[in-house]
Design goal:
Layout lengths: L2 H6 L4 E3 L4 H11 L5 H20 L4 E7 L5 E7 L2 E8 L6 H7 L4 E9 L6 E7 L7 E6 L2 E2 L3 H12 L7 E8 L1 H10 L4 E7 L2 E2 L5 E2 L5 H6 L4
């Protein structure tokens, strides 16, 4: 079994439905010839699909409402509060998609960079909601390669009192190596992604990937 297939079959890794629409959107943003305006527009569409899918994994309680006809409707309501946490800088591209789906949602930020001395991920900055320990967290980062930065961010959330089973990691593309490493390290965390790629290369780039997401989204390519 390939790593990609192993990741796809993992019970806590949730792929978006692989529709023609999604494949078309992903084809556009993977294309090296796609201009920045289109890259942003179509990436935002995928991000919104991911956020909507992520909400499906939040707990609900039964709720009855009365419709304008005066009759009752048996529905549900989300149980508990949520917040977003973006891994800077690329994760910030996903914040607007979250806000469009969840009005007035609180969003924290975490900056993880490689320590030049140890070559390990290091926390440089974090600004989290004060009551984050009482919330469900949608962790936002569009690309998951080795998982080093994401693992460090999850550790930061756990230190802040967030329960592991309340963390939903949302991204567009993941390498199977990084996804499996995260799922092995955190036994209750769930991942929601659009596509699982083949592997990472010796430079830790996702293959076939789409390049540097942050540079393409924010227009900072060389």
């Amino acid at each position: 079994m390939t790593l990609s297939k192993e990741a796809a079959e993992h019970s806590r890794l949730h792929l978006l439905p692989q529709t023609h629409q999604l494949k078309g959107l992903m084809t556009i943003i993977r294309d090296a010839n796609t201009e920045r305006g289109d890259f942003v527009f179509y990436s935002d569409r995928v991000i919104r699909l991911l956020v909507e899918e992520g909400l499906n994994y939040l707990p609900v309680v039964d709720k009855e409402v009365i419709t304008p006809t005066g009759l009752p409707f048996q529905g549900v309501a989300f149980e508990g509060r949520i917040c977003g946490v973006s891994i800077m800088r690329a994760g910030e591209s996903m914040e607007q998609g979250l806000r469009e789906v969840c009005t007035s949602v609180r969003i924290g930020k975490v900056l993880i960079q490689r320590d030049e001395r140890t070559a390990l991920p290091k926390l440089y900055y974090s600004k989290l909601p004060k009551d984050i320990a009482d919330r469900w967290v949608l962790l936002l980062d569009p690309m998951l390669a080795t998982g080093g930065s994401a693992v460090k961010c999850v550790e930061t959330l756990l230190e802040a009192g967030v329960k592991e089973e309340r963390i939903l990691f949302i991204n567009l593309i993941c390498a199977p190596e990084g996804a499996l490493a995260m799922l092995e390290r955190f036994k209750s965390l769930q991942i929601i992604t659009a596509e699982i790629d083949e592997s990472i290369d010796e430079r830790k780039f996702i293959l076939p990937g789409l390049g540097d997401f942050g540079d393409r989204y924010f227009g900072t390519e060389d």
